[in-house]
Design brief:
GO molecular function, one term: metal ion binding
CATH class: Mainly Alpha
Oligomer: single chain
Pfam families: LANC_like
Largest sheet: 3 strands, antiparallel
Strand content: under 5%
Keywords: Metal-binding, Plasmid, Zinc
Helix content: 40-55%
Distance between the termini: 30 Å
Binding site for Zn(2+): 290, 338-339
Number of strands: 7
GO biological process, one term: peptide modification
CATH topology: Glycosyltransferase
Shape: globular
């Protein structure tokens, strides 16, 4: 194991294991990074995500952070009992906490009964079709990966067999029908997914970027995430012909919106203007998981695999690699899962071991992504990370999606050459 990587994990894990450091960051509103949120219960921005990261660190470093990981998991559960979830989402709701419990229960069978019970509660609520009162969604999409239907499908597709229940297939089928109906209702994919600016969350990224209505192509809130979830669920559970037809329709639409680079690989804009305009900042994040160009390529890879289209699958692997290299060529040192190098490192695993990308090229790019993360490690920063996106200031974000927990979980999983369950929520790999 690379000593620099080990040292980086120790720095990140030690800070995240210190509940006082997290409490201080969360309570100090002036120190919080712009856009950071802390719910406490969630996978994306709460104790559940920190618990998952510390669990990964224990497996990878040989240093025991297990007690702290369990303390964070218990905190998430206790908070959910005190203030019940108002969302069933993967990253902002009950499904995410269920995912964290399931991940841990695979190696700690004492948690298996609790993980099964909580999973069944989530599945029952999903099957009822009536989310908890006050259920919200991010940036105008009740069907997205962060909060909505697509994330719920990814959760059901990835959940370990030891945890899943007898109702999973039927509930997943119902959710697939919801998305297929949404697509069928529109005369075009553009119409089905056009986001009206007035529905954006006040102060959100999209409110700031857009002067009118547009279609988000990304994974977190956009078309790529919907396509990824449908393809993953169809692979895991099977799907009705109407779902496959709509996946083909989305495939064709995504290919039509692509822009070939000089090598012939495909890249995508952040969004498509419908009315008004959308500003596309030239940063590394335009390649990243959340709203970047890699998302459509990953979704198209999963659709190609579902349809046994080896030629298209190879082309999408090449496009993913091209997007990785485009990210590396930018100066950004964002190391997060959502917008930065950690997310790119997870997606980069999709092009390993095949014949499309030469092994020497893949290894060189992988090393550059890891190096980008290690460059951001600073033992003097509150959570061990500084970011060029913050003008070199310390990162004050402990969370899984946007902060230190996701970075730690990513390098820990890579260090032990593992593909943890949580990777599937980003890559759409089903638990077959």
């Amino acid at each position: 194991m690379n000593t620099d990587t080990t040292h980086a994990m120790q720095i990140l894990a030690t800070r995240l294991a210190d509940d006082a450091v997290i409490r201080a960051a969360v309570s100090d509103a002036d120190a919080l990074d712009a856009g950071m949120s802390w719910d406490g219960r969630n996978l994306g921005d709460g104790h559940a995500g920190v618990s998952m990261a510390l669990f990964e660190a224990t497996l990878s470093t040989g240093i025991d952070f297990d007690r702290e990981a369990m303390a964070h998991l218990r905190s998430a559960v206790q908070l959910s009992n005190t203030a019940p979830f108002t969302s069933l989402g993967l990253f902002d709701g009950a499904a995410g906490l269920a995912a964290a419990m399931a991940e841990r229960s695979i190696v700690d069978e004492r948690l298996l009964p609790s993980a099964r019970r909580f999973h069944q509660v989530v599945v029952t609520q999903l099957g009822a079709g009536t989310p908890p009162p006050g259920s919200g969604f991010a940036d105008g999409s009740p069907h997205d990966v962060i909060s909505g239907t697509a994330g719920q499908l990814l959760y059901l597709s990835a959940i370990p067999r030891a945890v899943c229940g007898p109702d999973d297939r039927a509930v997943a089928s119902g959710l697939m029908d919801v998305l297929a109906d949404l697509l069928q209702a529109g005369t075009s994919v553009t119409e089905a997914f056009t986001v009206d600016r007035r529905y954006f969350m006040p102060g959100s990224t999209y409110e700031a970027l857009s002067t009118g209505d547009f279609v988000d192509l990304g994974t977190a809130h956009g078309v790529a995430g919907i396509a990824l979830a449908l393809a993953s669920a169809a692979k895991r559970f099977g799907a009705q012909p109407v779902v496959i037809d709509q996946l083909r329709r989305m495939r064709d639409w995504l290919l039509d919106t692509a822009v070939p680079d000089p090598s012939g690989c495909l890249q995508w804009p952040r969004g498509l203007e419908v009315h008004g305009s959308v500003t596309m900042p030239s940063t590394g994040s335009v390649c990243a998981w959340c709203f970047g160009s890699s998302g459509p390529a990953v979704a198209l890879l999963r659709i190609a695999e579902l349809l046994d289209d080896e030629s298209s699958a190879s082309a999408m692997q090449a496009s993913i690699e091209s997007n990785v290299e485009a990210f590396i060529s930018t100066p950004t040192t964002d190391s997060s899962l959502c917008h930065g190098a950690a997310g790119m490192l997870v997606l980069h695993s999709l092009t390993s071991g095949g014949t499309t990308v030469p092994s020497t090229r893949w290894a060189a790019n992988d090393a550059l992504l890891v190096s980008r993360i290690l460059q951001s490690i600073d033992a003097d920063a509150p959570f061990g990370i500084v970011s060029a996106g913050l003008d070199g200031r310390p990162l004050h974000d402990p969370t899984f999606l946007m902060g230190a927990a996701g970075t730690l979980a990513t390098i820990a999983g890579r260090t032990r050459d593992a593909h943890p369950i949580w990777h599937r929520y980003f890559t759409g790999a089903p638990n077959e």
